[in-house]
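Memo to structure team: turn this sequence into structure tokens by end of day. - J.P.
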Amino acid sequence: MGRSTRRRLAAVVLAILLAGCDGDDGGDAGTDPNAPVISSLSGAFQAGSCLLGGSTGTPRLLTLDYADADGNVSGGRLRVTATFRPDASSVTAEFGVPSDDVVVTGTVQGQVRLSACVLFGSFTELTEDVVLVDASDKKSNALSITSPRPAGAPEVSRSARGSAYGGSAR
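Reply from structure team:
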């Protein structure tokens, strides 16, 4: 291929790439303005214990702020994917909003609080990826938080139960 042919080909490729660019970085492209937006995710292990599937676990409180233009977070769900390290074992749990485990304040903006129960098995770290889905099935952005296993967390043998994440049995 000659030099002038390569230049023309490069110019065509560049033109094609630039044709799809409208100056926006694409960060919010395609986002529904009525989808919830979540922020300020925090997590804390609570004192005491909880039961999950008949095994003793560690109580966990997740808190996040939300904004939802069409105000229909109630009737939706909170999806948490819990990944346990070091081997990246994961489980996804969904909680109704509101429910026994989830308290929500506000309508178009407010706070969501999840009371969960964590079984660490023999794992040492937990990462929670959180998405809020409103009543019309619109999904929020995702947030995540990583926490080390708290001192004194009950260890469940892998053969008995392994790691798990779910609602907080009180």
